[in-house]
Amino acid sequence: QPVAVEVLDHLEQLALVDFRDAEGVERLRKAIQFADQLHEVNTDGVEPMDSVLEDRCLYLREDDVTEGNCANELLKNAREKVEEYFVAPPGNIPLPKLEERETFLQGS
Amino acid sequence: GLCQPVWRFQVSSALKEGHVTPTELCQRCLALIKSTRFLNAYITVAEETALKQAEESEKRYKRGQPLGVLDGIPIAVKDNFNTAGIETTCASNMLKGYISPYNATVVQKLLDQGAVLLGKTNLDEFAMGSGSTDGVFGPVRNPWSYSRQYKEKSVPKSHSEDEESNWVITGGSSGGSAAAVSSFTCFAALGSDTGGSTRNPAAHCGVVGLKPTYGLISRHGLIPLVNSMDVPGILTRCVDDAAVVLGSLAGHDPKDSTTIQDNFKPFELPSLPDVSKLSIGIPKEYHAPGLSSEILALWSKAADLFKNAGAKVIEVSLPHTRYSIVCYHVLCTAEVASNMARFDGLEYGHRSDMNKSTESMYAATRREGFNDVVRGRILSGNYFLLKQNYENYFIKAQKVRRLIANDFLKVFGSGVDILLTPTTLSDAVPYREFIKEDNRTRSAQDDILTQAANMAGLPAINVPTALSERGLPVGLQFIGRSFQEKQLLTVAKWFEKQVKFPMIQLEEVKRHNHGIFQHQKSASFS
């Protein structure tokens, strides 16, 4: 069962990752088909499991500053920066719609 | 021969007694790394810093104050662990050039014990894969491809066909670490294990691969794949060495809130382990389709070994085993979708030149930085997390996860101490065979015997068992109860002593070992 183009487009926008080609789309279809086997299992009355350590209390520490002050270290790995700021291109601009985007999904 | 006795060389005591110095040891390993470059096991060799560390270690030995058993011991670390001042790439374009500003806790612990960090090992990109073939630096070659044992058994189809096309994979995703240990370039290596990524290559490369209980060892600094399943893995040439490394790594880390707070006591394994009072479970579902008859026979032989030693060996059932890989597929891709969101080019890693908007820059960066496998998993994961799918896939998988974990609880609760299973379905396949199928198909096939232990958070270990008809290593897996590593490793050690797995006969190793390991057939450190 193929996945609707609207969903594929939606996924590309959510993930900010592209399908690239027909193989990429087929990869998703196969992944869904594989995952569908889960529905063979009867899970009535079964609680979802988040973590194998669910029976233990999560460790909390005191709200004390014990380390930090390493802005210089951290900025070293950023490509674009100004003083102590990471520089990003303008925000609040949505990705172009499917028709205007350069994506394999165009014309699907 | 197959049952050659293996002498344990205690390089630690050699260091203590001055038979060899840390710098000599380090230099030998670095030279061996150079002459085994064709294996492509290392992404980065930190020659300068390693030699400095070796020098410091030497000073300590001269003063008679070594830090411990690990002082001066050369180790390697999988390239998905942060190592301060050293590039950490995860074998991806996304992190090429990324110099870690800090050490992962496990790396720091090893360095604090005086271990010498030789370099970072190769893997599948972002640890996604079961072959160590899908990283940007190319595939890792299994050292056994070049062993006398394998060459003797392989019949080239034509005169022109040589080892170039016959080489076999290491398995993955910690293939570089497994190859590094297997080829004697280091004494221990760190891997990671989310679905079998330490045990699988350990089996194919003939080394010990330990997956500790989830929560025992800190994940701080291990670039995450699946937060609820990832664990650092330990690769060594013998079980005793794995116990030593475990001892130096385990314990609560305030920087990783998923590590348990119980006090961990490092242990030494008994020199003459006794298995006669144990109950060994043989899960019938692990007789999976595709299991080679060779491995089936070894598994059966192993069960007999335990029986003859007086242990109770019984067949048990883990009914949801075959759903483990499907469950993993959903949970893994979902967590990956979340974990990979941090790679946007802004703070570290690759950044695209695209500058029109934040979103388009992120999209272009990720388009350029991730390979097909990673992108595929991100997209699948996002699909399963969509509102309309969340209940049917993600929550459903979490419920199945509980059923899988409960299967183990039931069996261990019924008096079984340890489970004995195969680690892989077959011995290592040639690279040209392996790449015929895509990554997801391969992972689904290869992780089938190892994945459930990650689902349930249990400790598990691969012990090299014998050579296959093709002259390649085959291992068996032991799965233990949560936080019962001592019992698990005791059983593993007993088994290791019984099977006497042969040493790899590798030309390069022989050449470099002369003078240092002259009387030894194998080199462990503990």
Give the count of helical stretches of chain A: 3
**SS strand fraction of chain A:** under 5%
Binned, the helix content of chain B reads 25-40%
**How many whole angstroms does the radius of gyration of chain A measure?**
22 Å
Organism (chain B): Uria aalge (Common mure)
InterPro entries (chain B): Amidase, Amidase_dom, AS_sf, GatA
Keywords (chain B): ATP-binding, Ligase, Mitochondrion, Nucleotide-binding, Protein biosynthesis, Transferase
Pfam families (chain B): Amidase (PF01425)
Description:
The complex is a heterodimer of chains A (108) and B (526). Chain A has a domain at 1-40. Chain A is mainly alpha-helical and 108 residues long. Chain A is 28% helix and 4% strand. In chain B, a hairpin with a 5-residue loop joins strand 10 (460-467) and strand 11. Chain B is 40% helix and 12% strand. In chain B, helix 11 crosses helix 13 (372-385) and helix 11 (321-339) crosses helix 14. Chain B has 526 residues and is α/β, with parallel strands linked by helices. Chain B is built from 19 helices and eleven strands. Chain B starts with 10 loop residues before the first helix and ends in a 13-residue tail after the last helix. Chain B has helices at 11-17, 22-35, 47-62, 105-112, 148-153, 163-166, 175-182, 199-205, 239-249, 293-308, 321-339, 358-369, 372-385, 387-413, 431-434, 439-446, 451-456, 485-499, 507-513, and strands spanning 42-45, 74-78, 116-121, 188-193, 208-211, 231-236, 279-283, 312-316, 418-422, 460-467, 473-479. Chains A and B meet through helix 1 and helix 2 of A and helix 11, helix 12, helix 13 and helix 14 of B.
